[in-house]
Specification:
heterodimer, A: 446 residues, alpha+beta, 6-stranded mixed β-sheet, 24 strands, globular, B: 494 residues, 7-stranded mixed β-sheet
Chain lengths: 446, 494
């Protein structure tokens, strides 16, 4: 573990020697181990112990420069401060990033949640067992080509020359299982599941196994779907991944850079049907990887983004909040240009729906379980998407796997076409979300 | 001839703490031979079958101009090492930031313990690992001065601002203009228990534009990027005027484009970045990483016809200045030129050390990784479909109604061999002629099927810089092809 107090003292002394009066440092250290297995044997085990910091330096003209380094010894910090000092000569002259006004506000949230790391042998043993169970779940499941069990201790810190000092440490353990089928005369089918928890002891391996097996088996009997417009139901994972791909909608820095589907004037306008509400909630109890402060030291919090379909707030850094006359929200990532990013979405119903829907009596509805290749099929600045997906055609409550198809549309239109937000939410690693029903989306099949 | 015993006795493990290694701290040179040789010997004495150390030092900087302001100048300095330990075909990989002898030894010890091995007892002899004379590509090819000769921070800013100003004069309905540049200088040293001892310096640079245009509800965004691996003056000689013109023209055409109607069409795919289709739909499936996972449909098909007879494809690390060019891979093996497919017949796979060990396919100098935190894996370098014999007119003339994919976006291939690509700039082909711009297209299909549908290749092979993400992180690659005709492919749209 890093000694943050010593690092702060050392950095202060080096900065003084270099004539630097104003600086801040954001950094982290990671101690992680991961295993993969193949047909009952360990395939590769990885371990890593590393640290990195980003230093920002303000010069006499108040321009800011930055440098990142993995060398956190005195010489490394000195070189980083010198390089940042040089870079500050070319820093922006307007809207210069500054310390967050909330960098020294007290944080009451529990900041350390550590667990003892399990021995590597226990990781391998558990993963071998999981692989074996998945292979025996159905005769068609012949491989688990992608699998992994990883544990990670992460310590983060932020400090600045005004005396702000924050740090926190957390442990996580994660598991993914992705199985693939082989059957004579049929195309290979695949599906997977993912779980994350504080420690190996708390990891729900059984439910991960069950989900991976059930999903894979459900895709064994597949058929083509006719191209056309369908009512589409997004699974929690699928809707959250689409929301994440179009997060520029809520991102204040993107708004200021004109790289967003929103403008400053979009606030308080209706962007979705009134059935939808969305929060970003870093501190949600389901968020195992919660962070209590952002890259500028601002405390994280629950932020209402969409309330009953109305765009309620943007996600802010200290700088965007100042420019848009708002409060920082704890979403800054430090850098020469501070960026903004979401933490953990919480999607829930807005106003009560006049009509409710159920898959049990659905007729010709497409249920999308998993959207693929978002990096290729999403045009975030245009608002459009065209994405392959794993899913089922639902007819009289019966699910039939779809062989190969894409879903396409415009994200803003999609938000305005929500016809139902189911009441029961699911906890996922990316957020909490129920199934979302959309009216008339384009599906390309055959 | 007479033989004599070596003058010095073998090292005993209890003597290790007393050893004073003085390796050059800011350069990987011959002074690293002694500590690495000792550590490799320790690993072998512990019972490992094979040990490899990968040491890395990085000096990276990126610069971003938004409209008429430099908004980001971000240097990054990084050092680290990874040690890979093999017992039979199983292996583990441990990485650390600590390049001191004790830091590297701690990483080795952790790797050995993961494999169920222990450092030798105090009285054990440490086998001597005789490394080859340092194979120093940096010295041999005059790369030592590269970093000093690159553009300064000031020059980066000046060039990008001038480039963005040029874009303003060429484009209409501009919402935002971005010019981006990065320089990635990397020094690597590899030492392995088979005697490998090699050093290289790599200089990778990239520069390009992102242009967003908007007119009411109509939006278009176009990017263009160039890359280089050996010219410190790359940014200085960037012909931004030409690129600005091309980007502005594409964005203007796409601004009012209609959405593509979904369906199955014959498609002409442009050269240059159009090569991403081969990279995703076939290239990844020829990596031993995929063979090991049994996720490649081509695993057992070496020597068989897997593509249309018009298709020949290569992967190599030798093309001067290309984005995927390397003098040696990240396992110290010199780069090669690997024939993947010849007239439709599968000739070779791409193999790294572990992939070769596990699949039996010979190594091809393809062991690559993003940085020291990743073990090397079989990865592509410069991958392209070879030029054919047809003229571009022949390709268009063969299509009554189809799609011309002029600029591809990214793509991916899944575990079942299904691939997909986004298309950034597309046009409708009617009666052999381009008629109108189209947007929102995604190409989807099966790798095994699409390669048999590449029926015509033109003569205009061109390469493009790209980034490829996979098991060993993001690596710099080249994709390429001439214009090709695909007889039919599913196009996702509206």
């Amino acid at each position: 573990m890093l000694n943050i107090t010593d690092l702060a003292t050392d950095t202060q002394a080096i900065a003084h020697k270099l004539g630097i009066e104003k600086f801040d440092i954001y950094g982290s250290s990671v101690d992680e181990t991961s295993v993969q297995v193949d047909q009952g044997k360990p395939k590769q085990v990885k371990a890593s112990n590393r640290a990195g910091v980003t230093v920002r330096v303000w010069n006499a003209d108040q321009s800011m420069g930055i440098t990142s380094t993995t060398d956190i010894h005195s010489l490394g910090i000195e070189l980083a401060l010198k390089t940042a000092q040089e870079a500050s000569l070319f820093g922006v002259k307007e809207h210069v990033p500054d310390f967050s006004p909330e960098a020294m506000v007290a944080i009451t949230t529990k900041s350390d949640e550590m667990a003892d790391q399990a021995p590597v042998s226990a990781l391998i043993e558990n993963l071998v067992k999981a692989e074996k169970a998945l292979l025996s779940a159905h005769p068609a499941i012949k491989d688990v080509p992608y699998n992994g069990l990883a544990q990670r201790d992460v310590e983060r810190f932020y400090l600045n020359s005004d005396g702000a000092i924050r740090n926190e440490a957390r442990s996580y353990t994660s598991l993914y299982l992705y199985s693939k089928t082989r059957e004579a005369g049929k195309k290979p089918r695949s599906a997977g599941a993912y779980r994350i928890s504080r420690s190996l002891d708390q990891l729900d391996i059984e439910s991960c196994l069950k989900e991976a097996a059930e999903k894979t088996i459900s895709h064994l009997n597949y058929q083509k779907v006719k191209s056309g417009k369908y009512t589409v139901v997004f699974s929690p994972e699928a809707f959250l991944s689409l929301l994440g791909a179009f997060s520029n909608l809520f991102n204040a820095q993107n708004v200021l850079d004109k790289q967003s589907l929103s403008t400053p004037e979009s606030l308080r306008t209706q962007i979705a049907t009134s059935l939808l509400s969305v929060y970003d909630d870093a501190l949600h109890p389901a968020n195992v990887a919660a962070e209590t402060f952002d890259g500028e030291g601002t405390p994280t919090r629950r932020v209402s983004l969409v309330a009953n379909g109305t765009l309620n707030s943007f996600l802010h850094s200290a700088g965007t909040a100042k420019r848009l006359n708002a409060q920082p929200t704890g979403h800054a990532n430090t850098g020469a240009k501070v960026t903004v990013g979401s933490h953990f979405y919480h999607v829930l119903p807005g106003v009560a729906a006049e009509q409710s829907y159920s898959l049990a009596d659905a007729e010709d509805v497409i249920l999308i379980d998993d959207l693929k290749a978002l990096h290729a099929g999403v045009k975030a600045l245009q608002g459009s998407f065209s994405l392959p997906f794993d899913g089922w055609l639902v007819r009289h409550g019966k699910l039939t796997s779809i062989e190969s198809a894409t879903v396409a549309g415009d994200f803003l239109e999609l938000l305005r076409s929500i016809i139902f937000v189911e009441p029961e939410a699911e906890m996922t690693p990316a957020g909490v979300c129920p199934r979302i029903w959309i009216d008339k989306l384009s599906i390309t099949g055959e | 001839m007479t033989l004599s015993m070596p003058s010095s006795a073998l090292l005993v493990s209890r003597e290790l703490p007393a050893l004073q290694y003085t390796s050059t701290p800011d350069r990987f040179d011959e002074t690293w031979e002694a500590p690495l040789s000792t550590l490799l010997g320790l690993g072998r004495a512990a019972g490992a079958d094979f040990i490899e150390f990968f040491l890395e030092r990085v000096n990276y900087i990126s610069c971003l101009a938004e409209d008429d302001v430099i908004t980001s100048l971000s240097p990054r300095l990084s050092t680290g090492a990874g040690v890979r330990v093999f017992c039979g075909k199983a292996d583990c990989y441990v990485s650390t930031n600590d390049l001191s002898f004790s830091g590297l030894r701690a990483a080795l010890e952790k790797g050995l313990s993961i494999m169920g091995l222990q450092l030798p007892v105090p009285n054990a002899y440490v086998p001597e690992i005789n490394l080859e004379l340092l194979r120093d590509y940096a010295m041999e090819k005059g790369k030592e001065v590269w970093l000093l000769e690159c553009s300064s921070m000031r020059e980066m800013g000046e060039v990008l601002l001038a480039a963005n100003a040029q874009l303003e004069t060429k484009a209409t309905h501009v919402q935002s203009r971005r010019a981006v540049y990065f320089r990635d200088w990397q020094e690597v040293l590899i030492a392995a228990s088979d005697g490998t001892f090699a050093r290289d310096i790599r200089l990778t640079q990239s520069v390009g534009y992102n242009l967003l245009c908007a007119d009411g509800a109509h939006r278009s965004s176009i990017s263009k990027r160039a890359g280089d691996t050996s010219d410190p003056s790359f940014l200085r000689v960037w012909n931004y005027s030409l690129d600005a013109e091309e980007v502005a023209e594409s964005a203007g055409k796409m601004l009012y484009a209609d959405y593509v109607e979904s369906g199955t069409y014959p498609v002409v795919m442009a050269n240059h970045f159009g090569g991403v289709i081969f990279h995703e739909a076939c290239g990844h499936l020829l990596e031993t990483t995929q063979i090991e996972r049994r996720t490649s449909p081509f695993s057992e098909r070496k020597g068989e016809k897997i593509a249309h007879e018009s298709l020949t494809a290569w992967d190599e690390g030798l093309s001067p200045t290309a984005f995927g060019t390397i003098d040696m891979d990240d396992e110290g093996m010199p780069a090669q030129r690997t024939l993947l497919i010849e007239n439709g017949v599968l000739k070779n796979f791409l193999a790294d050390r572990a992939g070769s060990l596990r699949t039996g396919h010979p190594r091809t100098g393809s062991g690559r990784r993003q940085n020291y935190t990743y073990a090397a894996a079989s990865r592509m370098r410069n991958t392209y479909i070879a030029a054919g014999e047809h003229s571009l007119d022949n390709l268009f003339a063969s299509i009554d109604k189809g799609i011309y994919c002029k600029k591809m976006g990214g793509g991916s291939v899944g575990a079942t061999g299904q691939f997909n690509f986004g298309v950034d700039e597309a046009y409708l082909i009617e009666q052999g002629r381009i008629t109108k711009p189209l947007k929102g297209a995604t190409l989807i299909g099966e790798a095994t099927e699409i390669m048999n549908k590449v029926s015509l290749c033109s003569k205009d092979l061109d390469l493009a810089a790209g980034f490829c993400g996979s098991v060993s992180g993001s690596v710099y690659v080249t994709v390429g092809q001439p214009h090709i005709k695909v007889d039919s492919i599913t196009v996702g749209g509206r």
